[in-house]
Amino acid sequence: MKRYGSIIGLRPEKLEEYKKLHAEVWPGVLKMIKECGLRNYSIYYKDGFLFSYYEYIGTDYEADMAKMAADPETQRWWEVCKPCQQPLETRGDGEWWADMEEFFHVD
After folding, report:
1. How many domains is the chain built from?
2. Is residue 67 part of a domain?
3. pTM (2 decimals)?
């Protein structure tokens, strides 16, 4: 199992819309998240930023992320969510959400 954290900005005028979207995530999106080996998925909000955390239990992360990205319902979900988000200027090439480095963990 590998843990992942990422961060992105949230447009202030979209806060309530984003909360509502995530209070009612589409069933097909939730199904794809599980099919692609993501568990313990959480999104937190603070001062204009979203922090995402999940654990990956699969064996081929790149293939599972490609499967998720190819899913039509997930693509539609992302198109609904993207206008709410403001990517960080410091994100890596090809990133929407900026990957974060884990400094510390204890079970």
Report:
1. 1
2. yes
3. 0.90
